[in-house]
Amino acid sequence: MGQTVTFKRPDGKDCNGYLASPAGGDKAPGVVVIQEWWGLNDQIKGVAERLAALGYRALVPDLYKGKLALDAAEAKHMMTNLNFADAATQDVRGAAQHLKEASAKVGVVGFCMGGALTVLAALYVKEVNACSSWYGFPPEQAGDVKTITVPLQLHLAEKDASFSPDGARALETKLKEGKVPFESYWYDAGHAFGN
Q1: Contact, 96 vs 32, CB < 8 A?
Q2: How many other C-beta atoms lie within 10 A of the C-beta of residue 127?
Q3: pTM of the prediction?
Q4: What pLDDT, on the 0 to 100 scale, is given for residue 24?
Q5: Are the C-beta atoms of 82 and 64 separated by less than 8 Å?
Q6: How far apart are CA 139 and CA 83, in angstroms?
Q7: Does position 178 have pLDDT exceeding 80, yes or no?
């Protein structure tokens, strides 16, 4: 089972998170796992546990600082009030730096809102070695995705009502223009098909 840990953000503030580790895997590769809009709930802890069972140290930063959303309206409110730039460059980067203390390689995986933050991590968190975004991407004004240098994987839904397929295809076009090392997987599904 995982445990609650506290790690430092680059700005020196504390951030809590949930860390799941494989048996005897103190130096195992690390993965920062980024929550959906619900918060640090049992579902996302389960994702970390599954990664630990596969041999990874998985750390989920608590982006909502202990709060959990119980319904979609509350989740939307909490996501809307989240400072995405701060979450990516401080909480997610701090989690990556924490894992890098023992893990030679660190990746990022995120879902929905966390998928958007994963693309931002690929853009702004220089400590990461690879990123995998599941049905989420940031708005165009969040940064120039053509400048991403780490391998990026996208899992996208043809019938996504939350992140438009047209927006995803525009993202792919920009990544191709920037010669970003990326791969896309499209699914005949709606949003949150991996949950």
Answers
A1: yes
A2: 20
A3: 0.96
A4: 79
A5: yes
A6: 13
A7: yes
